[in-house]
Automatic annotation (TrEMBL):
Domain Mos1 transposase HTH: residue ranges: 13-58
InterPro entries recorded: Mos1_HTH, RNaseH_sf, Transposase-MT_Hybrid
Biased amino acid composition, Low complexity: 223-234
Chain spans, region Disordered: 223-248, 282-303
Molecular-function GO terms, alphabetical: nucleic acid binding
Originating organism: Araneus ventricosus (Orbweaver spider)
Pfam families documented for this protein: HTH_48 (PF17906)
Name of the protein this chain belongs to: Mos1 transposase HTH domain-containing protein
Length: 303
């Protein structure tokens, strides 16, 4: 009894068949010997006779011949159609393309998009602001208006421009660990105090005025979900003290806001600049006065 070889490769079985066929062994005898060595499921009698005929016809290769396989459905026309659909909607998904091409599988469409067309899904880049053509035209018009009025009125026009600015004022009200240090004996008990938290660590201060007088200063806390927008808050009253244009603005003992000087080519960000410079009939109330309380209260900017 011979030892059986389990799970032989096809090329080894065919090599044994070619060897036995070269010794003029009959196909039936080749099939019987193959069953003795490799088991009953090695190959059928009909398949043995088919290989014997191919060896007799001059075949020497015992490996499978390469086959063309299933024809590919991807062609240049399909790639062009997919590219056209992508150009119509850049925020497409592979599932949306499957609805447009139901005869094409999802895997094939993904291969066309990534390998043939070399598309990659990228996010848009977020920037704080974008300078558009409409902004350029608007600022050019404002600068031209400033220059025209300056040529007509002279330096007196510069004193009528109301400009403004905004800044974040931070409130440092908590006592730090360094500030809580005290001189004590080494055997004295350690002082304990609960951790403090500040709900509003900073607020937005809006200030506006002319070159000679300060109009008003308003402070809005940092917005949260429960707080209204700055445009919904009441308009604060102007300060009762007049400030010279060389003086700094000190709203309280814990914050300092410096006043920004104007230029007649100023690019306005507040509505007060737009209104005061666009109207040729500028009211006399905005002209320089010694006391800031006589100035009109400008509206807060719309946000």
């Amino acid at each position: 009894m011979f030892e059986t070889i389990a799970h032989p490769s096809d090329c080894k079985v065919r090599s044994a068949m070619r060897f036995l066929n070269a010794k003029n062994v009959k196909p039936a005898e080749i099939h019987r010997q193959l069953i003795e060595i490799y088991g009953e499921n090695v190959m059928t009698d009909g398949m043995v006779r088919k290989w014997v005929r191919q060896f007799n016809d001059g075949r020497t290769n015992v490996n499978d011949e390469s086959q063309s396989g299933r024809p590919s459905v991807v062609n240049d026309g399909l790639v062009a159609k997919v590219n056209e659909k992508i150009s119509e909607n850049r925020r497409f998904t592979i599932r949306m393309l499957c609805d447009e091409f139901p005869q094409i599988s999802k895997t094939v469409l993904h291969e066309i998009v990534t390998n043939r067309l070399n598309y990659r899904k990228l996010c848009s880049r977020w920037v704080p602001k974008m300078f558009m053509d409409v902004h350029r035209t608007k600022r050019f018009g404002s600068a031209l208006t400033f220059r025209t009025r300056y040529s007509e009125e002279g330096n007196g026009f510069l004193n009528k421009i109301v400009t403004g600015g905004e800044t974040w004022v931070r409130h440092v009200t908590l006592e730090s660990k360094q500030q809580s240090m005290e001189w004590r004996h080494s055997r004295s008990p350690t002082k304990k105090y609960p951790k403090q938290r500040c709900q509003h660590t900073k607020s937005c201060a809006l200030c506006s005025g002319t070159d000679r007088a300060f109009c008003f200063l308003s402070s809005f806390p940092e917005q949260s979900q429960s707080q209204p927008c700055s445009s919904e808050l009441p308009i604060p009253k102007p300060p009762e003290t007049s400030l010279d244009h060389n003086d700094s603005i000190v709203p309280d003992s814990r914050s300092l806001v410096s006043f920004k000087k104007h230029s007649y080519f100023v690019e306005s960000q507040f509505w007060a600049i737009q209104q005061s410079c666009a109207d040729p009939n500028l009211p006399s109330a905005i002209s320089p006065v010694p006391h800031s309380s006589e100035l009109p209260i400008p509206k807060p900017p719309e946000t």
